[in-house]
Amino acid sequence: MGAANRHDLMVDNNLIEVEAVNFDSLKNLYLEWFANEENFDYIAPEFLEVSEKEADKLQEAAVALNKLAIKAAFHIAEHDLWKEAGIPKAAIKLMRYSLANELDIHLVGRYDFSGGMEDTPIKFLEFNADTCSLMPETAHIQELYANQAEEKLEGDLPFNDLLDSLVEKLTFIRKKYPEHNPSMLITAFGHEEDWLNAEIIAEAAEEAGFTEVQKLVMDKVIFSEEGVFVEMGHEHFVQFDFVFKVIPWEFIMHEEPELLGIFDKAIRNKEVIVLNPAYTALLQSKAILKYMYELEPDNPYLLKASFKEKDFPERKFVKKPIFGRMGENISMFDGGEKAFYKTKGDYGDYPRILQQLAVFNIDEDGCRYQPSIFWTGESSALCFRRQDDPVIDDDAEYVPHVIRHD
Predict the structure, then answer these.
(1) 23 sits in which H/E element
(2) Is the Cβ–Cβ distance between 214 and 240 less than 8 Å?
(3) Do the Cβ atoms of 371 and 385 come closer than 8 Å?
(4) DSSP per residue over 55-119, as a string?
(5) How far, in Å, CA of 229 to CA of 185, rounded?
(6) Are 204 and 166 in contact (CB under 8 A)?
(7) How far is CA 184 from CA 130, 173, 215, 377, in A?
């Protein structure tokens, strides 16, 4: 996650300055949180111009890497590398079932990259395979913003098929299970950002033909081996056959063993369809980076990854927890014995994976640009974040983009 200072990595000539996103327009979409109070400067007042060729290459990278990630997940299962991947014994049966039966119902994830512009090589950082963020910004805000700044952007638009692709995938999932009622419960811990991402799923589910779509905080949901229920009135319980959880599988596996046991039986007995499916915990685990690299060490998109420091004699690597999020508990080394950059966080108890330092495109202010591709069974949208720290975390800006047709 390092950056170079070469002039050809600079992106400043591709930035188009525009007026700040219209707050009232965001409010009309119930998205004012993204520009409110401490988030007032979250949406950058610029658009990043990306060539059609650059966007196509990022999409191609996601397609290739998804195939390899699935291959690596089966490799872990076939060689019983569950412990190394961070999967507890209690979850193994469910993981095997999910790999065998639910491979085609992964709803949405996000591939994060470095590079991708100004001939900087695209390198894979990690796959946010389960409970990914940035959906409202990508699906709605940058579209709204592009319409607001239409004159300056000369009619160019972002690559954004996210909502349409989610509708298509949810339609497929609904039809795959015709014996199940088309009822969707979306549950989360209760954080505002989680609900805003959940709302995108709710919007897509309704358009995909789910006749009942409800959103409810986790502690109001009744989870049982017979299925998932909500008490709608006194002693009146409604069963939901489909559940989208904005609750990570790693949290369920390691912090909620009772819920894991309930899901294990309910899912394997087809009492409920849970999205994203359980096997996405393998894709979410950064341990998969090691196995992807072992399977294809010459893959042009991969950075070297290992559990051992001795595999990096030059000591240029990032050390990160296998189930870390939001840039927490990361240490970065650039040749020395001590880390030149470290972050704190809540994921320090997880094992670490080491990954070769990556090269980012930068601007004259030293901000690193991280492109991401949303995955919905296909490459469905592109988005960018930037930050002046070595790690892209929750303090990053969201940078809208447009595609320049060559």
Answers:
(1) helix 23-28
(2) yes
(3) no
(4) HHHHHHHHHHHHHHHHHHHHHHHHTT-HHHHT--GGGHHHHHHHHHH-GGG---EEEEEE--STT
(5) 9
(6) yes
(7) 17, 11, 9, 20
Residues 294 and 26: their CA atoms lie apart, in Å, by: 45
Burial class (CB in 10 A: 0-12, 13-18, 19+), 354: buried
CA distance 130 to 214: 20
- For 314, the 3-state DSSP assignment is coil
Q: 3-class SS at 220?
A: helix
The percent of residues above 70 in pLDDT, for the chain, comes to: 98
Tokens of 166: 């989610």
Joined together, the tokens standing for residue 139 give: 């699906």
Q: Could you report the per-residue pLDDT of 273-303, keeping only the tens digit for each?
A: 999 999 999 999 999 999 999 999 999 999 9
pTM: predicted TM-score of the whole model, two decimal places: 0.95
DSSP letter for 140, please. I
CA 318 – CA 356 distance, rounded (Å): 6
Which amino acid is residue 305, in one-letter code? A
DSSP string, 154-176: TT----B-HHHHHHHHHHHHHHH
Cα 238 from Cα 234, distance rounded (Å) = 11
List residues bridging with 401 in a β-sheet. 48
Whole-angstrom distance, CA of residue 167 vs CA of residue 376:
10
Give 155's contacts (C-beta < 8 A, 6+ positions apart): none
